[in-house]
TrEMBL record:
Pfam families (UniProt xref): 5-nucleotidase
Protein name per Swiss-Prot or TrEMBL: Cytosolic 5'-nucleotidase 1A
Species classification: Eukaryota, Metazoa, Chordata, Craniata, Vertebrata
PANTHER family (UniProt xref): CYTOSOLIC 5'-NUCLEOTIDASE 1 FAMILY MEMBER (PTHR31367), CYTOSOLIC 5'-NUCLEOTIDASE 1B (PTHR31367:SF0)
GO annotations of cellular component type: cytosol
Gene Ontology annotations of biological process type: adenosine metabolic process; nucleotide metabolic process
Length: 359
């Protein structure tokens, strides 16, 4: 063995020892706080600061008096926790599911990971951190984008769902293939389950593409019923929220395989304006073709969704049509608008931008 080879060999041994020492050091660090899971195995939920916390007052100061006053205001109230925002109960419910998963699978990293995605100033970050600690939220990953679009970061974190108050950012995320929605605060407060995460989805243009919605809007209901009958065995294409339902299903199955089906802390609902007899079969067959279960499927045949959602009490309800979002929030449901598909051009069945009539 030459002198150089010997030296290289020795260096490698030292490196190995360094690695081992570093690993042992981290393994010995005792912490009561569970560590965040790896992004590749986690189900990552990115929430903005204005969805997690109620920052209406703060936002008003920012808009009326500018950034400097806004930062000063937040610094002054640094030790005063922010109030709950629309995503708060949802985030708490995600944490409940995580603690059940940790009991059943202590070594698994298939958990929800909550990332705070904010374009806030770093000085406001202290108030956010203080608020997160005040409420004992397990949020370790922060993305402070300094005003830039979060979409690049959402991809890097392999985000499964992004919730924001800013429809432009949500639109951009959806265009990039990320499940995303604009969150709305309900008009009244509803008591929500603390032991079960309850998620409700609209069907067309949310779980499914808007291919059938286009027919309803452009050709009317009779044509739509004909179309759905003719295509009953052809699965609908996937919509922007399908992947999130899939992620929920993956976690549900972890409970089922431990005989916890009846006691599963995740429950999913389909709340669609479709009618069961004339257009319901295609929806159920599509879900079946994807290998996805939904716990409860509710076909409303055009009836308003609000009163039913009031009974379901979901932590979040996704819909592509603003008038369903309005109906949901009026009855106390936390609703998330998915700005996708032909529905964006309509309000209550009427085109929003009518072409100007020629004089
Ligand atoms: Mg829809």
């Amino acid at each position: 063995m030459s002198g150089t080879e010997e030296k290289v060999g020795r260096r490698r041994d030292e490196e190995e020892q360094d690695w081992e020492a570093a690993k042992a050091f981290f393994n010995n660090m005792k912490s009561k706080k569970p560590r965040p899971p790896k992004p590749s195995t986690a189900i990552t939920i990115a929430v903005s600061s204005r969805t997690l916390f109620n920052m209406v007052e703060e936002r008003k100061i920012y808009e009326d008096e500018g950034l400097e006053k806004y930062v000063a205001y937040n610094q002054q109230l640094e030790d005063q926790p922010l109030k709950h925002g629309a995503a708060f109960p949802f985030v708490k419910a995600l944490m409940t599911v995580n603690s059940r998963l940790r009991e059943l699978y202590p070594d698994s990293e298939e958990l929800f990971d909550i990332v705070l995605m904010t374009n806030n100033h770093a000085q406001v970050g202290v108030r956010l951190i203080n608020s997160i600690n005040h409420y004992d939220l397990l949020i370790e990953r922060f993305c402070m984008t300094g005003g830039k679009s979060p979409v690049g970061y959402l991809k890097a974190y392999m985000t499964n769902l992004y919730l924001s108050k800013d429809p432009e950012k949500v639109k951009e995320a959806i265009e990039q293939g990320i499940a995303a929605a604009t969150l709305f605060t309900p008009g009244k407060k509803t008591e929500l389950s603390e032991s079960q995460l309850r998620v409700a989805f609209d069907g067309d243009a949310v779980l499914f593409s808007d291919e059938s919605e286009i027919i309803v809007k452009q050709q009317g209901l009779d044509q739509f019923f004909e179309h759905e009958k003719a295509n009953v065995n052809k699965p609908l294409a996937q919509g922007p929220l399908k992947c999130f339902l899939e992620a929920l299903g993956k976690l549900q199955r972890k409970f089922y395989s431990k005989n916890e089906r009846m006691n599963c802390p995740i429950r999913t609902f389909l709340v669609t304006a479709r009618s069961a007899a004339s257009s319901g079969a295609r929806v159920l067959k599509t879900l079946r073709s994807w290998g996805l279960e939904i716990d409860e499927a509710l076909f409303l045949a055009g009836a308003p969704k609000g009163p039913l959602l009031e009974k379901i009490k979901p932590h979040i309800f996704f819909d592509d049509q603003i008038f369903h979002i309005e109906g949901a929030t009026e009855t106390g449901t936390i609703a998330a608008h998915v700005p996708y598909g032909i529905g964006q051009k309509y309000h209550k069945g009427k085109l929003i931008e009518q072409p100007e009539k020629q004089k």
